[in-house]
Specification:
This protein is an all-alpha fold. It is 80% helix and 0% strand. The chain has helices at residues 3-20, 26-33, 37-62, 67-87, 91-118, 125-154, 156-177, 194-201, 207-225, 227-235, 241-263, 268-289, 293-321, 328-353, 360-383, 387-403. The longest helix has 30 residues, at 125-154.
């Protein structure tokens, strides 16, 4: 595996920490800037919206550039907005920096995914994607809790400074290790037009995969976002168990990304199908057994493993099905990932506000997984040829074998 792939994972770790760390900093931000908690919560929403819209826009913006230049620009902007955010005394500026930082993060994600898989042979593409996505899981295990500790000890601004500082070694490493091939090429081929990339990505093969990815991530972040009230008000665990549970989920997520990276290349459909079915059962089981501390703590790392393992396999599936979209395949994967991360918590919040209890978001996660299974099953069924079509296909192959391919002169076949 090229060292540059691990460098991309390091940069994604810093950016993933920034994406999720506000969950432990909102009270400090609200008090310091004189705004309500709900207003502080909009900082998370602004980042999520920037991630969803930023991936395709930034990928298109930078598609004609060398990949290294694009990655360095996105990292430089990301560092700059965190410095500005750490220094600003005003809420409006901080809100703007979150949106701009998300645009840079989304652009980096999109280019990093495409760059990582382009640097390795086919048999290692899932593992390369797993290293990049693994940066997010390590952020959940290490970065987010560390950000909360920094915010508690030295104020919320120290967490922003830490993200900027951690990003600097990644900037230097990208500069020294990532090759400078153009973003609009694949494997040294000629640049692909935007129209051709969009045709590939909006075709019948990829639409259901992207929808399935959004549903899987929606289920994941729906339950993950409301894990604290589930544990403390339904399971009966103390507040001290919340960071432990988050770390367990993150450890499971890291294991899932690692496993998917090793097996998704050889058996992509089997890995995705198994993950979808297991997640449907897993979220349903958590909704039913959330009153038991032992069962809940046992399910949390398993669900982290399944969620991020399946998500990684789906990302690899998109990149594998779209070699004709070298720029936008990573962007569309990033958008689907973050669209689920945006819609899932919103849907879980609706269920809570409707009075269905603290298990409701987990029930919504199970429902989203049922939808993901239906999409996958319907797609597989629609692609399966009928008996008559199989017979006709066989006849056509035999006929071509006798007379050669169209336009071929007799006697030219080997």
């Amino acid at each position: 595996m090229p060292f540059a792939v691990y460098v991309l994972g390091l940069a994604v770790f810093a950016q993933g920490t920034s994406e999720f760390m506000l969950s432990g900093l909102l009270s400090g931000i609200a008090a310091d800037l004189g705004v309500s908690l709900s207003a502080a919560g909009l900082l998370t929403s602004a980042f999520a919206v920037g991630m969803v819209v930023g991936a395709p826009l930034m990928a298109l913006f930078s598609r004609a550039w060398p990949r290294r230049r694009a990655l360095l620009l996105f990292l430089a902007v990301f560092v700059a907005v965190h410095v500005v955010g750490a220094l600003t005394p005003g809420y409006g500026v901080l809100l703007a920096t979150r949106f701009v930082g998300a645009l840079a993060n989304a652009g980096f994600w999109a280019v990093a995914l495409s760059t990582a898989v382009a640097m390795v042979p086919d048999r290692l593409k899932s593992r390369a994607a797993a290293v990049v996505v693994g940066g997010v899981t390590i952020a959940c295990v290490v970065g987010v809790p560390a950000g909360a500790v920094l915010g508690e000890s030295w104020g919320w601004r120290s967490a922003f400074w830490a993200v900027a500082i951690v990003s600097l070694p990644a900037f230097v490493a990208v500069l020294r290790t990532v090759p400078g091939g153009r973003g609009g090429t694949y494997g040294g081929a000629d640049p692909v037009s935007v129209r051709e990339e969009l045709r590939v990505l909006t075709g019948p093969r990829l639409r259901p995969v992207l929808l399935t990815m959004a549903l899987v991530q929606g289920a994941t972040f729906c339950a993950f976002s409301y894990l604290e009230p589930l544990l403390t008000r339904e399971t009966g665990l103390g507040a001290g168990w919340v960071p432990v549970s988050l770390a367990l989920f993150g450890a499971g997520a890291f294991a899932g990304v690692t496993v998917a990276g090793r097996f998704a290349d050889g058996h992509p459909v089997a890995v995705v199908a198994t993950g979808l079915a297991a997640l449907t059962v897993g979220w349903s089981a958590l909704a039913l057994t959330a009153g038991s501390p032992v069962l809940t703590l046992g399910l949390i790392p398993l669900l982290g493993l399944l969620a991020f393992g399946t998500g990684t396999a789906l990302i690899t599936r998109v990149l594998g099905l779209a070699p004709g979209a070298p720029t936008l395949a990573g962007a569309f994967s990033t958008t689907a990932f973050n669209l689920g991360a945006t819609v899932g918590p919103w849907a879980g919040g609706l269920a809570l506000d409707a009075g269905f209890g603290y298990r409701a978001p987990v029930g919504v996660s199970a429902a989203l997984m049922v939808l993901a299974l239906l999409v996958a099953a319907t797609t597989a069924k629609s692609r399966r040829p009928r008996a008559g079509e199989r017979r006709l296909s066989a006849v056509n192959r035999c006929a071509r074998g006798r007379r050669g391919s169209p336009g071929e002169r007799p006697g030219t076949r080997l």
